[in-house]
């Protein structure tokens, strides 16, 4: 079923009544955070290999067997599927039709609104679909205020407005920056504009998504800075490449709208998943820079990079970085024409 927003926290705290949870949308950080919360809700803080199975794209076929398996140590198991796509639909349907008490957590960034997997979950009585999207400006300001208040810190209106302009593209990055800011001013302190700028600075909100938008806009320097930060914060090489592929595929879908008569600006506004409002200009610019053929080249480059990252002994971090930087260099050339 499609879960009402007011019931999201209830399921995240206690998913005992469901067998599968689909986390979809454009906020990758929020998807990962909620996936981790569901795991903790079932098996606690311990990383118990007998109760947790983690699968990726190549492991979709194992979903039914993992769902039916029993933990040797007892207790409910969790099957966590990263980067779930429509290719997992048949296996998920078989798992939900079979036996097993495990919780299936499907993390699906960028899943299309007409996805077969999403339709399956929304039809099922024992499964729920939860959308994970970036906040709008008003919602972001509320999160900034409530988060800092929860950390025993007050904040000036001017600082809230500035922070809202820097944060919000990724919920996990936003939370991390606000926690750092709270530590900077200390318990009982007050965040003013000077403190916000001193602590958060120009690096605020830089993330894997920042790197990808910078790359397809042709900003090589910003791509390199954002990639360095994202990987320093734990973004794995395969994650970088797959996120890049998802970004290119969203551009391909929007570019197809332009072939149907949409302008670049109209296609950006109609893009699915929706583009975060502060990134619409960069997305529109990318649509004007990248032809369908160029986007196909980019997708193939990223597929090749993913395969190369998985080869034993390969310098995977370098391969992933070069794949994304290569996109930025191509877009930069297109900008100069």
Automatic annotation (TrEMBL):
SUPFAM superfamilies per UniProt: P-loop containing nucleoside triphosphate hydrolases, post-AAA+ oligomerization domain-like
GO process annotations (BP): DNA-templated DNA replication
Gene Ontology MF terms in the entry: DNA binding; DNA-directed DNA polymerase activity
Protein EC: 2.7.7.7
Residues spanning the signal sequence: none
Keywords, in A-Z order: DNA replication, DNA-directed DNA polymerase, Nucleotidyltransferase, Transferase
Any one GO CC term of the record: DNA polymerase III complex
Catalytic activity: DNA(n) + a 2'-deoxyribonucleoside 5'-triphosphate = DNA(n+1) + diphosphate
Uppermost EC category: transferase
Domain of life: Bacteria
The family this protein is said to belong to: Belongs to the DNA polymerase HolA subunit family.
PANTHER family, A to Z: DNA POLYMERASE III SUBUNIT DELTA
Protein name in UniProt: DNA-directed DNA polymerase
Naturally occurring in which organism (per UniProt): Rhodovastum atsumiense
